[in-house]
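Let's practice the habit of predicting before peeking. Look at the sequence and jot down your guess about where helices and strands might fall. Then scroll down.
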Amino acid sequence: VKTTLSHHRLLIVLVRCNEPLGHVTQQLRAAALPYLIYQKVAGICNSRPLPPAEAAHARMIPFNLGRECIGYLQFMSEQYNSLPRMTAFLQWGAEMHMPLRGHGLPSNLLFLLNSTKGYVGLSKNSFEGAWPAPCEPQAMRAAFASCHHRYWREAVSGGELAGQPPPATIRFYANGIFAASSERIRAHPRSFYSRLLARFSGATALRCVDGGSNRAFHPVNASGVLKAEVDCLVLEKLWHVIFGEEPLLPNATAYNREVRFPPGYLEQIGRQPRQGIRTPRRATAHHHPAPLASHQTCAPECDWARRCWKASPILH
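Done guessing? Here is the structure:
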């Protein structure tokens, strides 16, 4: 893994704090999917270190700012000249948010080996609402308002949307999990990712706060501190725009059909043994997984606490 990564058709980048290891790497190895683990090592993230067997796959992150964003940006900045054809960016435990939940992490990723898309959202959850804070709690909206214009301008720089104002409405895939091609990543210069990384590594101030915020690591867990996480939550809504997609992505049902799972793929997954996973009692040799799809449209006055959705059923 220490050599160039450009020969890989697909590489999995995992960002971890102190979550249990589970069967994640076992599944990836069984599926012959190469991976790197970006391990946060500050504060609480140091309470459950990686085992020595994973050392060859590990890259250390000395800070715990910015949720998963810091790991993604460290990879893009460090590996800019040796990117694989396609990279899947995941936070640890991502499978719970993916369309084929319960069928193993690789089942949600193997289609990317032959995908011709430049960007693919990997969550089952699509959200639609008023930019910049669809469905976010009222307490966080001032922080989003303080920075979203600058992040939008940065995201669209050099692209077809450059110079245009932020959209009134956006539909994005939540949970900060996605895949991007080397071509889409390199549509921005390396300095673009290095500049973003500097904010999440404490070198320069974060944007989504009032006043200076270039604190290093919060003593407990920066992921729970407003100052450290809102910048990454803005990027979560913008990754698809950064990588060349329109602000309003298709809803999750259409996305499963048109972007994620090509004809025959689900049948193939249903026939494969699932490494490290207990087979459901009702599963048979001919069981074909039904992708989950959650499309939620949030009115401007709503937030998570109120659960005020215009439409929010789980669809299959």
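How did you do? The chain has one domain: 10-278+288-315.
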